[in-house]
Amino acid sequence: MWRIEHHPILGDLKKQKKVLITLDGEQIEACEGEMVAAALMADGHRILRWTKKNDEPRGIFCAIGRCTDCVMIVNGVPNVRTCVTPVEDGMVIETQKGIGSWGKIE
Amino acid sequence: MPEQQRRSVDTLSLKKSGTPSLKELKSTPGFPPGKILEMGPLAVIECVQEIPCNPCETACPQGAIEVGSPITRLPVLKAEDCVGCGLCVAACPGLAIYIKDYTYEPERALITFPFEYLPLPGKGETVTMVNRLGEPVCPGEIVRVNRSRRNDRTTVISAAFDKRYFHEVVGMARMRRQ
Amino acid sequence: MTRTEILVIGAGPAGLSAAIESARAGARVLLIDENAAPGGQLFKQIHKFFGSREHRAGTRGLDIGTQLLAETRELGIGVMLSTEACAIYPGHEVWTVCEGKKSALIKTDCLIIATGASENAVSFPGWTLPGVMGAGAAQTMININRVLPGRHVLMLGSGNVGLIVSYQLLQAGAEVEAVVEAAPEIGGYGVHSAKIRRAGVPFYTSHTVVEARGREHVEEAVVAALDSNWRPLADSEQVFAVDTICLATGLTPLAELAWLAGCRFTYIPALGGHIPWHDKTMQSSIPGLYVAGDIAGVEEASTAMEEGRLAGINAAASLGYYATERREELSEQVRQRLAALRSGPFGDGRRSAKEEILNA
Asked: What span, in angstroms and rounded, lies between the C-alpha atoms of B90 and B87?
């Protein structure tokens, strides 16, 4: 369990509205309004993408939207900073390989 | 109180191990004099560096803690005015104050210290008392768990322990979460 | 085009304080922030602040944040969130992009840039592995998102950020296996280090992380001792089984907007590097453009709030909302509170560094 249910200063985690998102096809329950990266981390997922050149795993680094280490494909759009993007019901998230693509120029 | 004693203690132990040594502490004005053993509950202020900070002075209703101006001065404990009420324990942002009472019982002393972890122990429970390095020293019995709102989420715990370990014990070990 | 009198960029402690003071003076204020929620890094500071009563000492950072937001609402300050300032044109015209979809050009008389700072990185083999993150990142995950980034953490850096985040990781339910510090002495406050030492966390001064190992995630941290020339000593390596390595190795001002606007800069390592030059009213080299908080030199939340107030008071005064005497009176009160926060052996370095800016 990665969620902090009971905290000595922040108190007990209040009941939150759940939403359903998918990660690479797998359904995950997330809390409404939380950041994508946090929802994935709560579900035990730490690898968010693989680099283009050396195919190396990356996860969060700065967690405040500055470093772009956390980018993933969200609803088909690549390079979305998951640490500052809130989840939405039905959101489709994919582990990004390399630089991602928006679709081809015909 | 000579002004030199109000200045930072140059501490090798603090800067390397993270905690001041007892020797370093005894030269600070917040550390009670030797007669702590006879005086009943007294505040022990383990504040050895000049940081701009004075909530301890503001919190004490007896005026037993003096910082003055500038607010970087080390707090002075006026032992004769301290009644061991423990309001300073939660007020200190550095969690550097606890109350010790050598006279609590014939065999046991009482320590009242700040604790900001979970789970909290229950009254009557046996816990592990620790020294400044976090090493277990002896068992302790929980006498009181104070969660007063006035303390703003800093729980203040009182525990009784074998008074042979009076000078070593500064708190309790964190307990395992279920 | 939106028109306002004082535009504050950044709704952290400095920006909120600047907006509040400007509004109190009677100016029309607009506060923008690129994040979806205001507060900057303030809401993850769940510990009680130091200082005196006037500095809100003894109050937890997150509660100070709530108080500042309440004051913002009471004063009717306009706040635009998810709004990024992308360009600053002459005449204080700021092009902003809202929610990545709409743009707005804001024309203002005065501009206060309070964009804060970001964490530095330290590189070593394996540093790109998931599990290596800034200490602030771990703090955001545990205190804002309420998720543990890992269960066994190694903290690199023993300044106040490293010490405080270590403590908060313990509070969140993680174990901090060690605090590693390259310098021969612990950098942060003794009361912070004593708190975590009491919880059994060991310190390794004159040590550093030389490698992070793991297949797809951090599994081990390799720590080596350093000689007096800061070089790793052969045969001194120790391996810690950890799943997270936090880097608490300093911050650097997020000063891009000040660069874009053409502000003059000065380089002061003690405050984080390139700092936009400013005078004692927090005005930069560009008339009507002020800076406040970590962008003007990395210090702490308390000084950020005071600098924000100083900028707000003086920006409003420059528009005629305070007479000279009142402006000086209010500014002096802030400067005295700042001087108190910059006193003592920890504050001295910052105080002289801030003085260096004034003389640059």
From this structure: 6
